[in-house]
Amino acid sequence: MPSLLVPLVNSQDDGDYVTLTFPHERRLKGGVSITDTTQIVDQINHAATCGQIKKIESFINSMALEEQLGLHGLLNPAAIETIANNIDILNIDRGVKEHIIWYYLSKLNWSDEVLSRIIKIYKHENYIALESLVISAIKLDEVEDYQIEMILNVFDTKEIKREIEKRIERRKNSNRLNQ
Asked: Which of 53, 82, 98, 126 is most deeply buried (CB count within 10 A of its CB)?
């Protein structure tokens, strides 16, 4: 990180100095420099509203990976949706893609369409985070009976099977109480 040694104002000439450090400067294509994460987030949000996918990619890649992994919590919903809908053409870190996709899908109401999208992405990318969306839907009883087989065909894990067994038990207990 660049720094500058500056004498303190009103010091008694005893050699008091302070070191000023400057944030890492990010250089984007075309010579644009941005130093603040908030500025980058604003630029990504704006680029998303204009459908400028390659600009989004450039802005994301100008950030440190730790910052990129937290982007899903900083971007506006429209930007998240734009990125999620164009995730296949963005050349960004795989983990960042997974975070954004998980976040986007977690905000949608459970439906056949959402399940189909989760399955399609999971088959193609094997994002483990998507399994947590299915588990949550099972726990919240959002999954319909006819969706169970589709889920088991794709997510053949112990945790999914365990949650489906718990769901069956809950339904049995609920039916007993209703009789």
From this structure: 82
